[in-house]
Amino acid sequence: MRTQEELAGVTLLGDKRTEYPTDYAPQMLETFVNKHPENDYLVTLNCPEFTTLCPKTGQPDFAHIYINYIPNERMVESKSLKLYLFSFRNHGDFHEDCINIIMKDLVALMQPRYLEVYGIFTPRGGISIYPFANYADEAHQALKQQRLLAQMNRTF
User: Fold this and answer.
1) Which of the residues 33, 52, 67, 121 has the least number of beta carbons within 10 Å of its own beta carbon?
2) What is the pTM of this model?
3) Is 23 a catalytic residue?
4) Which letter, b or e, does each residue of 111-130 get, where b requires 16 or more Cβ atoms within 10 Å of its Cβ?
5) Burial zone of 68 (CB within 10 Å; 0-12 exposed, 13-18 middle, 19+ buried)
6) Quick one: average pLDDT of 10-18?
């Protein structure tokens, strides 16, 4: 069981007065201590209802976002991630920008060993866009290149 000290930075989970951000809000992100930092293991987070706005037209864009990471000392708390991703609802940026922003915010938050963000955006105008961005610490650079190449060789 986790101690209160280990849960000190987790403030949103269990709060019944959840306030949903109306603008991009990276400050919503919270972390908790990884109890198994000696292990390389994968955490997958799946957000099938991501929404954002086209920066030019203001039309809504919808995506399925996958986040995979190998934690280091800290891990992202899922409710805070949900609220953070929700904060993109009124944010106007291109698909590629959103994926890179999410990746950079999570890297800054957790300093993971490895992290990737993959977006499967619903087609608009007959074109699908599937941006992929990844990060790796020094020890996981080979994995970073391998995963990027795998995405480039993917057949849809």
Assistant:
1) 33
2) 0.92
3) no
4) ebbbbbbbbbbeeeeeeebb
5) middle
6) 78
pLDDT-derived band at 156, boundaries 50, 70, 90: low
Q: Which of 40, 47, 54, 97 is catalytic?
A: 54
**What are the DSSP calls for 46-68, one per residue?**
EEEEEEEE-TTT--EEEEEEEEE
**Is 54 annotated in the active site?**
yes
Q: What is the Cα–Cα distance from 90 to 72, expressed in whole angstroms?
A: 32
What's at 37, amino acid-wise?
Answer: P
- So what's the pLDDT on residue 10? 82
pLDDT tens for each residue of 65-103: 999 999 999 999 999 999 999 999 999 999 999 999 999
Domain locations in the chain as residue ranges: 48-133
